[in-house]
Amino acid sequence: MDVISTDHLPPGERFDFWRDVNAKVFVPYDLRCDPQLERGFRGRVDVTGFGGVQAILITSMPHSVHRTPKLIRQADPEVFKLGCMVRGAGMIVQDRRHAHFGVGELMLFDTSRPYVAELHPHVPVSQLLLLRFPRTLLPLPARDVRKLGALRLPAAGGVAALSSQFLLQLARRMGELSPVDTTRLSTLALDVLTVALADALETQAVVPRQSRRRALVAQIHAYVREHLGDANLTPESIAATHHISVRYLHKLFEEEEHTVAGWVRQRRLEQCRRDLAEPELSGRSIQAIAGQWGFRNPTHFSQAFRSAYGLSPLQFRRQTAAVHADRTGVHGIAWTSPDTP
Question: Domain range for residue 113?
Answer without folding.
Answer: 2-173
